[in-house]
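Action item from last week, closing it out:
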Amino acid sequence: MPEATHTTEGGARAAPEGFEPRIVAFFCNWCTYIAADLAGTSRMKYAPNVRVIRTMCSGRVDPQFVLEAFARGADGVLIGGCHPGDCHYQEGNYKTLRRYTLLRQVLATLGIEPQRFRLEWISASEAERVRAVVNEMVEQVRALGPLRLEVPQEVPVPRQREEVAA
């Protein structure tokens, strides 16, 4: 069933009423995941729209994980890692930053708005920052509306090479 949308005064398409974004968050085990846990034990409230996936390092987040999250219906993807220089594995967050920069370009070519993909450095003691980042991203994605990826009905099959008779 199609979702009801409304148009703003400027003619831009607005998010359907009652839209709740689904955000997949890949959090580093040593920093951001602990900060999220601290936010929970400190009874800080943040939007429940985020599904956290704990990874041993943000550098272990393969770009395919991000693409698959979007393909499976995520409206946004958040990666949380240690501050540069604080990585438990020395260089994991630098690897993350390189991948993030390239992946943003790929996502732009697919028509995915840059606000839907975010990288944040959050240490274990920054529970308040987790709360603020999650709430801010949920509001940004909510304003954008649901991600509507156009998937082709059929994937074109490449033409096989014609054989030339000898």
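Closing note: Confidence is low (pLDDT under 50) at residues 1-12.
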